[in-house]
TrEMBL record:
InterPro entries: ABC_BtuC-like, ABC_transptr_permease_BtuC. It comes from the Bacteria. Keywords: Cell membrane, Membrane, Transmembrane, Transmembrane helix, Transport. It comes from Dictyoglomus thermophilum. PANTHER family: ABC TRANSPORTER PERMEASE PROTEIN MJ0876-RELATED (PTHR30472:SF25), FERRIC ENTEROBACTIN TRANSPORT SYSTEM PERMEASE PROTEIN (PTHR30472). Gene3D superfamilies: ABC transporter involved in vitamin B12 uptake, BtuC (1.10.3470.10). The chain crosses the membrane at residues 18-38, 101-120, 126-146, 158-179, 199-219, 246-273, 285-302, 314-334. This is Iron ABC transporter permease. It is a multi-pass membrane protein. It is found in: Cell membrane. GO terms for biological process: siderophore-iron import into cell. Belongs to the binding-protein-dependent transport system permease family. FecCD subfamily.
Length: 340
């Protein structure tokens, strides 16, 4: 009898989490349709349906297939990648304020992008992604070294990220000083964080890296659950904590790097998403990884749609919108931790 009650409660426990994940998928589909049908060009739902059945004119076809659809897909993929990267960073570093942006990983990737743009005559997506990954990996290795050697507190780790961000920003500025005007404009525009410039080729790169990264994280979901109980407990359960921490951070660095190379620096999506979905799915990484990824995609899609429409026809950089949303949330997290 007790076993039957336990099984029933467990099914209810998992059903609520699956329901939340399916709700996120549904909301992404709904707001994707909304995003495709609003904007300054006057394409409405009827025009979109005509395009799907092959009866739309060439101008509307160009707007939808070459501009809006890549933008929507790019926003979802970038948000998914940043959301899952923030989730895993917070797990392996045992730091609730960790994310690619707050740790300086995105800024390290931006430094790599700057070097790629300035050193070479033309922007090559694969080369840019490689330089971005090298910059992100350099930051990650520094973070892992500091966290493992000096046993710093979560707050000190964030301060380390702030210091690294300032360092990389300074190096980026120095490199820009010696570049020509065209390359300076390219780099500055990149640092804004803008989904509108992402191409189908860059979307393919982001898609492959993000999907493979999520697949790896899901394979290791039980290891992350063990890490929630502490490093010693995880070791007693057979988890190679040091190796898992390094490999997981390298994968998150790769995800952050290709996203930064494709759409620029976008802050706080990786910080906000895991904290919000924990309210609904808890700390069970069987569900938290997927939920954080989906909520990140939904959040960035909504932010990009807002950036396109808030003062239409002017399109704001989505990085500014996410920073406006994320900065107060970050201050809230800091205040909660200091009160504790």
């Amino acid at each position: 009898m007790e076993q039957g009650i336990t099984i029933k409660k467990y099914k209810e426990y998992t059903a609520k989490k699956f329901l939340f994940i399916f709700l996120l998928i549904f909301l992404i589909i709904v707001f994707s349709i909304v995003a495709l049908n609003i904007g300054s060009s006057g394409v409405n739902l009827l025009d979109f349906v005509k395009l799907l059945i092959g009866k739309g004119d060439d101008r509307l076809s160009l707007i939808v297939w070459q501009i809006r659809i890549p933008r929507v897909i790019g926003a979802i993929l970038a948000g998914v990648g940043l959301g899952v990267a923030g989730c895993i960073s917070q797990s392996v570093l045992r730091n609730p304020m960790a994310s690619p942006f707050t740790l300086g990983i995105s800024q390290g990737a931006a430094l790599g992008v700057t070097l790629s743009v300035v050193l070479f005559r033309q922007t090559l997506p694969y080369l840019t992604s490689l330089f971005a990954f090298l910059g992100a990996m350099m930051t990650t290795l520094l973070i892992i070294l500091i966290s493992s050697r000096f046993k710093v507190t979560p707050e000190a780790m964030i301060l380390t990220g702030v210091s690294l961000s300032s360092l990389f920003s300074a190096l980026t500025t120095i490199i820009q000083y010696f570049a020509d005007e065209l390359k300076i404009a390219t780099v500055v525009f990149w640092t804004f964080g803008d989904i509108g410039r992402v191409s189908l080729r860059e979307i393919r790169i982001i898609f492959v890296v993000v999907v493979l990264g999520i697949f790896y994280f899901l394979l290791k979901r039980w290891d992350y659950n063990a890490l929630e109980s502490g490093s010693e407990t995880a070791k007693s359960l057979g988890v190679n904590v040091e190796r898992e921490r390094i490999v997981s951070m390298l994968v998150t660095s790769l995800i952050s790097a290709v996203i930064t190379a494709g759409v620029g620096v976008i802050g706080f999506v990786g910080l906000i998403s895991p904290h919000i979905v924990r309210r609904f799915v808890g700390n069970d990484y069987r569900f938290l990884i997927s939920a954080s990824a989906l909520f990140g995609g939904l959040l960035l899609l909504l932010a990009d749609t807002l950036a396109r429409t808030i003062i239409s026809p002017i399109v704001l950089p989505v990085g500014a919108i996410t920073s406006l949303l994320g900065a107060p949330f970050f201050l809230y997290l800091l205040s909660v931790r200091f009160r504790r």
